[in-house]
Write a structure and sequence with these properties.
The complex is a heterodimer.
Chain A (H helix, E strand, L loop, with lengths): L6 E3 L2 E3 L3 E3 L21 E3 L16 E4 L2 E4 L8 H7 L1 H6 L3 E6 L4 H11 L8 E5 L10 H4 L2 H12 L6 E4 L7 H10 L4 E4 L3 E3 L2 E2 L4 E2 L6 E4 L4 H14 L4 E4 L5 H10 L1 E6 L1 H5 L3 H16 L14
Parallel strand pairs in A: 3-4, 3-16, 4-7, 7-8, 8-9, 9-10, 10-15, 15-16
Antiparallel strand pairs in A: 1-2, 5-6, 6-14, 11-14, 12-13
Helix pairs in contact in A: 5-6, 6-7, 7-8, 8-10
Chain B lengths: L6 E12 L2 E7 L1 H6 L5 E4 L8 E9 L4 E7 L3 H7 L6 E8 L10 E7 L3 H13 L3 E8 L13 E4 L6 E2 L2 H5 L10 E6 L2 H14 L2 E5 L15 E5 L6 E5 L6 E3 L6
Parallel strand pairs in B: 7-8, 7-11, 8-9, 9-10, 11-12
Antiparallel strand pairs in B: 1-2, 1-6, 2-5, 3-4, 3-6, 4-5, 12-15, 13-14
Classes of the chains: A alpha/beta, B alpha/beta.
């Protein structure tokens, strides 16, 4: 029996479960210097907004035990520049093109989707970022409120046939409520999780290390939180889940899939080892061959006590 | 197409230059053969999560080695300074854009603190080409002086050795025939680079600076290490990546 690491997220077929997470790969160009991007399942673009954003000033990164805080603040060239300069590169990379859509208001998200929809032949899915913790308005503010998530998702649903993946924040009391709200609004998938909001303090100056005061915590430390949220949501959702948070090796990918993920996003680990997806892909193929399984059959096979 | 790679390299030499600064040599022919002054490497630092960036201080192409200087300032640099010869580390490099040293008759290299490491690489490269080069280095006091040569102009803040004052006092002693054919390269703390850039701007001398910023990936993908540079857009500036567009910038383009 031949085995494979192909997976599906709803109608989107991916040759591998590995997607580069938004904000950790720019638009893929820099990482293409290290490996052939076509081995990836997909690439999720840097979070894009209608107008270009300079991002936050000052110190944007604070290392932590087993991870890091960032407060980049959605620095991006704006969606129009992206369409003219980066979208074709992503399409030609051979990986599925996931465009990460951010905004400060309902109108921003609507404008973004209407701007991107005419280019749907080059886009495999829109990842709606309702979860960035580093901007003052929009994103996580909308993404913490189930009613707001359902409203914005249903509005965007009416504007495009492109698959809508809603990327959710873990900074909520009940992740099932926000995930169900996305599903009720017509989402095709949810992406769990964005970064956990955190702070580090310089004890000499008594000031936060980050000039933005707070930032988003990512890296191996957040993986158990993400796994728990994927497992919880997997019990109540009918739509697929893309797992994200602290993936560093092939066993992490398998853990996410057992918890209920159909695919995964990898990010912070690639900041340390840029070519890591090559190794993980090989290891996943070997795992499937050794165990004589199709990777996608692992999704949601968690055996609870 | 050949791809860049992450190297697993051996530490082959280590010596302490003063109480908190050491000089490390690594075996990596690819980096030794391709690096240019001003470029850096990103090195894994024991138990801490992120790699640490270091300007390349020297290369020896014959034996395939490159060298970096490490000043202990925190947990990561402390662990790296504690590495023993023979240890293997993960390394990305050479990274970033180095100094464009062509097209100038005279080059003045100036730096302070750990900035003297990339300055050393630039000096060795220019000397080997037989170019006119003057080096001016500044330190807090005599105990901090490292990698200094008798031919260098030396300044210290307290004046216990060399000229008393900052590198500006040292630069003022250099007689320059033609400002238009002179290049200044500066690596050091931001206040030093800002002052040197202003000194150059006043004379119409081109000034290249090597910026430093807290860095995560070193590969241009996380946008954490940005530097503010002038821009024609509505805001008058834009944030560019220190690791990718830099670390060397035209001092006249930086928003200080």
């Amino acid at each position: 029996m031949s085995t494979s690491i192909n997976v599906n997220v709803g109608n989107v077929s991916l040759k591998s479960p590995l997607i580069l997470a938004s904000g950790t790969c720019n638009f893929g160009r820099e990482l293409s210097e290290y490996y052939d991007l076509s081995l990836l399942g997909g690439i999720s673009s840097k979070g894009l907004t209608i107008k270009p954003r300079a991002g936050n000033p000052g110190v944007r990164v604070a290392e932590c035990d087993s991870g890091m805080l960032n407060s980049v603040g959605l620095q991006n060239p704006g969606v129009q520049y992206f369409i003219e300069n980066d979208l074709d590169f992503m399409k030609e990379s051979g990986a599925a093109v996931i465009v990460n859509v951010a905004g400060h208001s309902y109108e921003d998200y609507i404008d973004m989707v209407m701007t991107l929809d005419p280019h749907k032949d080059k886009i495999d899915a829109l990842e709606i970022n309702l979860s960035c913790p580093n901007v003052k308005e929009g994103c996580m503010t909308i993404g913490s409120d189930p009613a707001a998530i359902k409203l914005i998702t249903s509005k965007l649903r009416s504007l495009t046939d492109l698959p809508l993946w809603i990327k959710l924040t873990p900074n909520v009391t009940d992740i099932k409520a926000t995930a169900l709200a996305a599903q009720d609004g017509g989402a095709d998938a949810v992406v769990l999780i964005n970064t956990l909001m955190g702070m580090r303090i310089d004890i000499k100056t008594r000031r936060p290390v980050l000039t933005n005061n707070t930032g988003g915590y990512s890296g191996p430390a957040v993986k158990p939180v993400a796994i728990r949220m994927v497992a919880e949501c997997s019990q109540v959702l009918d739509i697929p889940i893309v797992g994200c948070g602290g993936i560093s090796d092939y066993k992490d990918v398998i853990e996410f899939m057992i918890a209920g993920a159909s695919a995964v996003e990898i990010g912070t680990a690639c900041l340390v080892h840029p070519a890591l997806p090559v190794k993980i892909t090989e290891d996943l193929e070997n795992y499937c061959t050794s165990n004589n399984i199709e990777l996608k059959d692992l999704t949601g096979t968690l055996q609870r006590w | 197409m050949s791809h860049k790679q992450e190297y697993r390299i051996r530490l082959v030499s280590k010596e302490f230059l003063n109480s908190d600064t050491c000089y490390l040599g690594f075996e990596c022919p690819d980096i030794a053969n391709s690096a240019i002054p001003g470029q850096f490497v990103n090195i894994s630092a024991g138990t801490v999560f992120l790699k640490r960036p270091f300007g390349i201080a020297s290369v020896d192409k014959d034996i395939g080695r490159f060298y970096i200087g490490v000043k202990v300032v925190g947990k990561g640099t402390s662990e790296i300074a504690g590495f023993e010869s023979g240890m293997m580390v993960d390394c990305l490099g050479p990274l970033g854009n180095g100094f464009d040293l062509e097209d100038y008759d005279n080059v003045i290299l100036t730096g302070g603190g750990t900035g003297v490491f990339p300055i050393n690489f630039a000096y060795e490269t220019l000397s080997a080409q037989g170019r006119n080069v003057v080096v001016c280095e500044g330190f807090r006091n005599a105990s901090q002086v490292i990698l200094n040569k008798p031919s260098y102009i030396l300044t210290t803040d307290c004046g216990d050795t060399g000229i008393k004052g900052t590198v500006i006092a040292g630069l003022d002693t250099i007689s320059i025939d033609d400002y238009g054919k002179t290049l200044v390269c500066c690596v050091g703390p931001v206040p030093m680079m800002k002052a040197v850039n202003a000194w150059c701007a006043d004379k119409g001398i081109k000034c290249l600076v090597s910026m430093e910023q807290r860095m995560a990936c070193g590969a241009g993908i996380c946008l954490c290490c940005t530097v503010k540079v002038k821009d024609d857009g509505p805001e008058g500036y834009k944030n560019v990546r220190c690791c990718k567009e830099g670390p060397v910038f035209d001092g006249g383009e930086v928003v200080w």
